[in-house]
Design goal:
This protein is an all-alpha fold and about 290 residues long. The chain is built from 13 helices and no strands. The relative contact order is 0.13.
Length: about 290
Amino acid sequence: MSRELSISNRNKKKKETISKCFIYFFLVIGALIMAVPFFWMVSTSLKTEGTVFSIPPKWIPDVFLWSNYSKAIEEAQLVQGLVNTLTIVIPPLIIGLFSASIAAYGFAKLEFPGREKLFLILLSTMMIPGIVTMVPSYVIYRNLGWIDTFKPLMIPGMFGGAACVFFLRQFFKNIPNELIEAAELDGLGHFGIFIKIVLPLSKPAIATQAIFGFLGGYNDYMGPLIYLNNPDKFTLQLKLSSFNGSYSSEWTLIMAGAVLALIPTVLIFYFAQKYFVEGIVMTGLKG
């Protein structure tokens, strides 16, 4: 009996090992497929112009032309574009996260008449395509005198977003009600509970939404294109677009600009990936 059990355990472990090998194999293949364009972009950014389309292609340049980066920074005005982008993204991100967190706490932990109906109305706004509201929004902002300013790109975001409220509400529902009740017995009001208990426990969800919000604002092209006219106010994406139009045949400079624009997002995701994964996993535990 023990011999049969031992054979069964060995067969089970063998199957698990083979299964893991297949999983790792396909993960490695998928990672390579995703990484190849990035490596090619970095390689192209360091080449001389005449070697970009050489046959056979060279993954490692014979000469690393670092001057492509300095020229891209200067010609594309990437520093000014980055400053404009951060000016537009960071204040709405911080204020909007706080606003959305308060709304999500109310929907998750407070009992009030019409809560579910209001939440359903909030969710219904997520079903409206942005292209539908583009013209009405432009007319409103034009009448307010906000065209060619940062206001239409900043102020709406300070009130939070429906998707952010929904995401945080799902996370807040995982926080035990016993903690809320104990804090109420200690004399804390709902705002104190929110600040001292809910927010510290919600770092993964907040970090996840911060990443989503930053990437969305950082990579936004259509919004700045519609509302900004002055080149001095252009965001990084508009600067890159203008640069690509002016140097459409110089792939080394275009790739250098793309690599530089990619660095902030890669760094942010690298340092916050722990919170990002934890926030995604824990949000799906409870409806």
